[in-house]
Specification:
670 residues; alpha/beta; Serine Threonine Protein Phosphatase 5, Tetratricopeptide repeat; 17 strands
Length: 670
C-alpha cells in the first residue's frame, strides 16, 4: 500500500473525479470524452486505500435480482460475507470518493447506453457500502430505466430498511430514496400478494389472526399453504387457542400437523374451550408434543381424562387454568390432576387458577404439590350443590403457605366453602416467614349458608392472612361476601387465638385499595385497616358499604352515624376513587347541598372516580349526584344506568360537568 497519508490519497481521488466529471458533464455527448472520463473514474477507484495497492475486482457471488425475485432480503444479501476471492481479500468500503467514482462511472455508462455495465457498477456500490443509500438508489434508478419497476421498488424498499436508523432529513440521498420509493409504493403494495412479502412481515401480518382464521387461509392456494406451514411462519402455530363457537373439532391427525408446523417445542399456548370435546388421546398429544408449553387453559376438564404420567417435565409452563366440577378422586393416581401434572411443571409454574378445587386439598392432611415459583393462585367452585351446610367443609389454608412459599396474589371464590386456619399454633410460630410477598388478597362469596362454627374459622383465617408481615406487604384487599357478622373482623378479639389482637399484629402501611361491595366493615375496623396507608399516602381507593340492619325496620336508619365514623378519612389527598354501597340516609331531610354524603365527598381534593350503588329511588339519586358534581372534580361515575326518563337529569348533569357515566364494574387487581 502507498505510504502517502490518506488525506493526500483522497485529494488525488477528488482531483481525478473532478476531471472526469468535467469531461462527462459536457453539454453535448462525446464518445471520446466519455471514454476518457471512464478512465479517470477508474483510476480514482483504484487509488482508494481499500485496494491496498492491488487490483480490486467486483464481487461475483451475490445476485441481488435473484434474491429480490425470491422475496428475500436484499439488505441481508449485501451485508453477508462474500465467498468468492474478493470477499476473502477485501473488506467493505464507505470512502466517499470511492463511492462517488463508481456512481459517476455508472452514470457515464448510462449515457453511453451500456446499462449492463451501469448496473454492475451500481451493484458494486451496494456491495461496498450496504449501509448507505447510494447503491440502492442508483440500482433502483437503473431498473426504472430498464422498465423493471418491481425490482426498482424492491431495491428502494431494501434501502429504506438498511437506513431505517437514519433520519430522512440527514442527507439528500435519503430524501431521494424515500421519494422514489413513495412513487412506486402505492402501486405495488396495493396489488401485491401479501404472502410474497418478506417472512418477518408475513409473520407480523398473520399474528393478528386467530387459529380458525389462519386455517381458512390455508384454503387460498397451494402457495399460501406452503408459506404458512413453512418454518419461518412457525410462530403462527404456537398459539393453539381453539374457538368457543360452532366449528368442527380437530381430528388427531390435524392436531399433529398443526403441532409439527409450530416447530421445535410445539405449541406455546393451548386453550381448550368449553364446547370442544377433548379426548385423552388429544390431551396427551397436545402436551407431549409441546415440551416448551408456556400457557395452558382447559375450560371443561372431565373426570375421565388423565394427564401424561411418563415423567416428562414442562420447564417453561408458567400459566395453568383448569375448570371442572367435583370430579377429582380422593387419591392422586398417576396422571391425575392436579398433583402429578403440576409437579411436572413445578420448576416454572407461576400462575395457577382452577374452578373445582381437588378433593384432596380439603383433607386434614392435604396432598398439595410443591410449587416454589408460584406467584398467583385463584381457587373457586362452580357447582353450588357440591357441599351442604351439614358438611361443614373447610379448606385448610396453612398447608398452602408451605406448598407455595412465594405467593404474591391469592383469591378465594366465588362459591367457596369456609376456610380453616388449623393448625392455629403453627401460624404463631411462623408469622414473619409466611408469604412475605403477598400483595393481593381476595375473598368472595361463600358457597353455602355457613354455621357459627365455620364462620369463626373463616374469620380467623382472614385475620391471620391480613396480618402476615404485619399487613405491610398487602397492596389490595377485596372482600365480596354478604356476611354481616364479619363487620368486626378487624376490631374485635379472635375466637381461635384468645390472646391475638389484630391491632398489635398489623400496620397496613402500603395498602393501595380496599374493595368491599357487599361487606359492611365497621368504621373502627376500617380505621385500623386504612388509616396508616392514608398517612403514608399510599391508599388511593376504598369502599364504604353501609349497614344492612335497620332501626324499627327502616332501611338506611344507621347511615349517618356510620358515615360519621369515617371522620378520620376526610380530606385524604391520596384518595382518587371511592365506592359507596347500600346507602339511603332515611333520616336526613335537609337540602341536597348540605347532604352528609355530599359534604364528605367534597373534602377529597383529588377524587376522580366515584362508584354509587344506592338503595334510594332514581329521583333521589339524581338530586344527590347533581349536588356531588357541584362540589367535586370527578372524571367518572360508575352507576347502574336505567333507561327510563328518571335518569335523563342524571345524564344531562354529568354531560354538563364533563363527567363520564359508566356501568358498574368490579376492580381488577389481578
Amino acid at each position: 500500500m502507498s505510504s502517502e497519508p490518506v488525506s493526500k490519497i483522497d485529494s488525488a481521488m477528488a482531483s481525478l473525479i473532478e476531471s472526469g466529471r468535467h469531461l462527462y458533464s459536457a453539454k453535448k455527448y462525446n464518445a471520446k470524452k466519455c471514454l476518457r472520463a471512464l478512465g479517470l473514474f477508474t483510476r480514482a477507484m483504484k487509488s482508494c486505500p481499500c485496494a491496498r495497492g492491488v487490483k480490486r475486482d467486483r464481487c461475483t457471488c451475490k445476485d441481488f435480482e435473484k434474491v429480490a425475485a425470491q422475496g428475500g432480503s436484499i439488505y441481508r444479501e449485501a451485508m453477508g460475507i462474500c465467498h468468492c476471492e474478493v470477499g476473502r481479500t477485501f473488506s467493505k468500503c464507505d470512502n466517499v470518493y470511492h463511492i462517488q467514482a463508481l456512481h459517476l462511472r455508472a452514470a457515464t455508462f448510462e449515457a453511453m447506453g451500456k446499462f449492463g455495465h451501469a448496473m454492475k457498477d451500481a451493484e458494486w456500490i451496494l456491495e461496498l457500502a450496504p449501509q448507505l443509500p447510494d447503491g440502492y438508489l442508483h440500482l433502483g434508478d437503473i431498473a426504472l430505466l430498464q422498465k423493471n419497476d418491481e425490482y426498482a421498488w424492491k431495491m428502494y424498499t431494501a434501502g429504506i430498511e438498511a437506513t431505517k436508523e437514519s433520519s430522512v432529513d440527514s442527507s439528500p440521498k435519503l430524501q431521494q430514496l424515500h421519494s422514489a420509493h413513495e412513487l412506486l409504493n402505492r402501486r405495488f403494495m396495493g396489488r401485491r400478494d401479501p404472502i410474497c412479502l418478506p417472512a418477518e412481515i408475513v409473520t407480523q401480518v398473520f399474528s393478528y389472526l386467530n387459529m380458525p382464521e389462519i386455517l381458512l387461509c390455508l384454503r387460498v392456494s397451494k402457495q399460501w399453504t406452503c408459506t404458512l406451514t413453512s418454518p419461518p411462519l412457525a410462530q403462527s402455530w404456537r398459539d393453539l387457542t381453539f374457538p368457543d363457537r360452532a366449528m368442527r373439532d380437530p381430528r388427531p391427525e390435524e392436531l399433529e400437523k398443526m403441532l409439527s408446523w409450530a416447530g421445535d417445542g410445539g405449541a406455546r399456548k393451548i386453550v381448550i374451550p368449553r364446547r370442544m370435546t377433548l379426548t385423552e388421546s388429544m390431551l396427551t398429544l397436545l402436551l407431549e408434543a409441546s415440551p416448551s408449553l408456556e400457557h395452558l387453559e382447559i375450560l371443561e376438564l372431565r373426570d375421565d381424562l388423565f394427564f401424561p404420567s411418563n415423567g416428562k417435565k414442562w420447564k417453561r409452563l408458567r400459566h395453568v387454568s383448569i375448570v371442572g366440577d367435583a370430579i377429582y378422586t380422593a387419591e392422586d393416581i398417576p396422571g391425575g390432576f392436579p398433583q402429578t401434572f403440576l409437579q411436572y411443571a413445578a420448576s416454572s409454574l407461576e400462575h395457577l387458577s382452577f374452578m373445582g378445587i381437588p378433593k384432596q386439598w380439603y383433607q386434614r392432611e392435604p396432598s398439595i404439590p410443591l410449587l416454589p415459583k408460584l406467584k398467583t393462585l385463584r381457587m373457586s367452585e362452580r357447582k353450588r350443590d357440591r357441599f351442604t351446610p351439614a358438611d361443614e367443609v373447610l379448606l385448610p389454608v396453612f398447608p398452602l403457605t408451605i406448598a407455595f412459599p412465594n405467593l404474591e396474589q391469592l383469591a378465594f371464590g366465588p362459591n367457596l366453602p369456609d376456610l380453616n386456619p388449623e393448625p392455629v399454633a403453627m401460624w404463631r410460630g411462623k408469622w414473619p416467614d409466611l408469604w412475605p410477598h403477598l400483595k393481593v388478597l381476595i375473598f368472595e362469596g361463600q358457597l353455602k349458608s355457613s354455621t357459627n362454627f365455620t364462620d369463626v374459622r373463616t374469620r380467623s383465617t382472614l385475620r391471620f392472612l391480613m396480618c402476615l408481615n404485619r399487613g405491610n406487604s398487602l397492596h389490595h384487599i377485596r372482600f365480596a361476601f354478604r356476611k354481616e357478622c364479619f363487620h368486626d373482623i378487624l376490631s374485635n378479639g379472635d375466637e381461635m387465638l384468645s390472646d391475638f389482637n389484630i391491632v398489635q399484629y398489623s400496620e397496613f402501611q402500603n395498602l393501595r385499595s380496599f374493595s368491599s361491595p357487599w361487606f359492611c366493615l365497621s368504621p373502627a375496623g376500617a380505621q385500623i385497616l386504612m388509616s396508616n396507608a392514608i398517612l403514608t399516602q399510599q391508599l388511593t381507593s376504598f369502599d364504604i358499604t353501609f349497614p344492612k340492619y335497620t332501626r324499627a325496620g327502616i332501611i338506611g336508619a344507621m347511615d349517618i352515624p356510620h358515615l360519621e365514623g369515617y371522620e378520620w378519612a376526610r380530606g385524604a389527598p391520596s384518595i382518587q376513587a371511592l365506592g359507596l354501597y347500600r346507602f339511603r340516609f332515611t333520616y336526613y331531610d335537609g337540602s341536597w347541598e348540605e347532604h352528609p354524603l355530599v359534604q364528605f365527598l367534597a373534602t377529597f381534593p383529588n377524587l376522580q372516580t366515584l362508584t354509587l350503588v344506592p338503595c334510594c329511588p332514581p329521583d333521589e339519586l339524581n338530586n344527590l349526584v347533581v349536588a356531588i358534581l357541584k362540589v367535586t372534580y370527578l372524571e367518572t361515575i360508575h352507576v347502574h344506568l336505567g333507561n327510563d326518563e328518571g335518569f335523563a337529569q342524571l345524564r344531562q348533569a354529568a354531560q354538563d360537568h364533563d363527567v363520564q357515566l359508566m356501568e358498574l364494574s368490579a376492580p381488577d387487581f389481578w
